[in-house]
Amino acid sequence: MSLIKQAQAGTLESNDIVIMVAPSVGGGIVVELQSLVMPQYGQQIRNIIESTVKEQGIDDIYIKAVDRGALDCTIRARMLAALARAGATGKEENV
């Protein structure tokens, strides 16, 4: 699966995250992360972003994330919203 266009989700408010996504050709999953809590939670934020992208079946994407102390569930929700706005259709869930 690939992205159709650039998109973003989130805000720069406290306890939120802005995630911007763009199509990438052959570059794999590239994450550029800025965070107020990078020393403590930087790797966890990267893991959430990357696992969410992989779950959606996307192999080539550029992601820029600016974190202001968002919780894990917020990071995942913003990532999914940015992907949807970029034209990526998620995997269907079995109900």
Describe this structure in words.
With 95 residues, the protein is α+β, with helices and mostly antiparallel strands. The chain has one domain: Ribosomal Protein S5, domain 2. The protein is 34% helix and 25% strand. The chain is built from 2 helices and 4 strands. It has helices at 38-55, 72-85, and strands at residues 7-9, 17-23, 29-35, 61-67. The chain has a 4-stranded mixed beta sheet, with helices on one face. Strand 1 and strand 2 (17-23) form a beta hairpin. The longest helix has 18 residues, at 38-55. It is globular and about 30 Å long. The mean pLDDT is 90. It is found in: Cytoplasm. The modification O-(phosphoribosyl dephospho-coenzyme A)serine is found at residue 14. Keywords: Cytoplasm, Lyase, Phosphoprotein. This is Citrate lyase acyl carrier protein. Its main location: cytoplasm.
What distinguishing features does this structure have?
95 residues; alpha+beta; Ribosomal Protein S5, domain 2; four-stranded mixed sheet; 2 helices; 4 strands; lyase; CitD; Citrate lyase acyl carrier protein
What's the layout of helices and strands?
Blueprint: E1 7-9, E2 17-23, E3 29-35, H1 38-55, E4 61-67, H2 72-85
Parallel strand pairs: 3-4
Antiparallel strand pairs: 1-2, 2-4
Protein name: Citrate lyase acyl carrier protein
Subcellular location: Cytoplasm
GO molecular function: lyase activity
